[in-house]
Write a structure and sequence with these properties.
Elements (H helix, E strand, L loop, with lengths): L2 E6 L8 H9 L2 E3 L7 E5 L13 E2 L4 E3 L7 E3 L6 E2 L3 E5 L1 H8 L6 E6 L10 E6 L2 E6 H7 L1 H7 L3
Parallel strand pairs: 1-9
Antiparallel strand pairs: 1-8, 2-3, 2-9, 3-6, 4-7, 5-6, 5-8, 10-11
Length: 153
């Protein structure tokens, strides 16, 4: 079964350890209610935290858990803000694979440990209503001086 690599989301700590284990043990399936805005996942029902949450920015690949317990992966045409807790963020390479999946495709999640998106040598900055991340290698080819100026590490 294919693995989708994910990083810990902003509200990772809001979820119980049992929910973390269930999230990675479950077989997830792309729902037929998925579209370019978000991929709804079917599988084991999660118990989202009861804490109230204000809407906050959402990046492409965020996995939000709404009250019904069925996760939603924010896709490229997705909203810029959301009010559900985000347990994880799909790794950009896995997101490319997931975006090509049709409804009914099954997969599992795998947690990425170690150097995360924030600690990587990628450059992240806000463009109109989105967070964009580029590798410093890509930027260096386009404009080597700009890449050095924006590099996080």
């Amino acid at each position: 079964m294919p693995l989708i690599r994910v990083w810990r989301g902003p509200q990772w700590d809001w979820f119980e350890h049992v929910e973390h284990a269930g999230f990675f043990a479950a077989d997830w399936e792309v729902s037929n209610r998925s579209d370019r805005v978000g991929y709804r996942l079917e599988g084991a029902r999660m118990n989202p935290p009861a804490a109230e949450m204000q809407s906050e920015p959402v990046v492409v690949g965020s996995i939000q858990v709404p009250p019904n317990g069925q996760p939603i992966v924010t896709m490229r045409d997705g909203p810029t803000v959301g009010g559900y807790p985000k347990i994880a963020i799909v790794d950009p390479d896995s997101l490319t694979w997931l975006a090509q999946c049709r409804p009914g495709v099954k997969f599992r999640m795998a947690l990425m440990e170690g150097r995360g998106l924030r600690e990587s040598r990628d450059v992240c900055f806000l463009v109109p209503w989105r967070l964009a991340c580029f590798s410093t290698r890509t930027l260096a080819r386009a404009n080597p001086w700009r890449a050095r100026a924006l590099s996080c590490g």
